[in-house]
Amino acid sequence: MTSNFRTSWLKFETQTHGGGTILGTSYRRRTLAIRAEVNFVTAEEAKELIAVDGYTVVDVRDKSQFERAHIKSCHHVPLFIANEDNDPGTIIKRTLHNNFSGLFYGLPFTKPNPEFVQSVKSQFSPQSKLLLVCQEGLRSTAAANKLEQAGFENIACMTSGLQSVKPGAFDSVGSTELQNAGKAGLVTVQGKISAVLGTVHTYSSLSSPIKPRRYSKFSKPPSRHKMLTFIIKFCSSLQPHQVS
């Protein structure tokens, strides 16, 4: 396999097999194997692989990130799938996850996809040119290693993932930009809430001719309950996909 990218490698392996005896002298057969290594590329190099070398994009992200934004005409084969197991240990872990990582960062509770390699094999031959992408580059690297071990010869991987892609770099489908597909949960609206509360506080301070009262440690500002109520109502009114 030849390539114009510096990060592409060819790995030579030798294996020794049991032999026999010729005229009283034992011998062993040695075979030479050539195995193609994974080709790590940048976003710009990835565009060239697709346009010039005919690589097919395989998106290995989970379903939620894929639905937010993905490269047009790509194939979706997730490396991790939703973990819906109902054994006691999984239920506890899922509950803890959903109340923290799921709520604040929108991360789904997943497990390794046991059918990943087989799913790729059912769609592509070992000689197919495949460009693997994920959001940060970690899952695509792991997926590339699995496929390389399974015998695929032309595997490329985007090093920094879709988060490093500039807006408009690829034709995409979804409700957001490719680089923002990994952002979800309450952290995405934290800035909006802070801006609203800051505006309310600033307006109240400027419009009031009386200096704010000083409250003792035993008393509570009268507006605290209203602010908490406002935050709760604001979060409750969010679209489902923003906090999932």
TrEMBL record:
<feature type="domain" description="Rhodanese">
    <location>
        <begin position="51"/>
        <end position="174"/>
    </location>
</feature>
<dbReference type="InterPro" id="IPR036873">
    <property type="entry name" value="Rhodanese-like_dom_sf"/>
</dbReference>
<dbReference type="GO" id="GO:0009507">
    <property type="term" value="C:chloroplast"/>
</dbReference>
<dbReference type="InterPro" id="IPR044615">
    <property type="entry name" value="STR9"/>
</dbReference>
<dbReference type="Pfam" id="PF00581">
    <property type="entry name" value="Rhodanese"/>
</dbReference>
<protein>
    <submittedName>
        <fullName>Rhodanese/Cell cycle control phosphatase superfamily protein</fullName>
    </submittedName>
</protein>
<dbReference type="InterPro" id="IPR001763">
    <property type="entry name" value="Rhodanese-like_dom"/>
</dbReference>
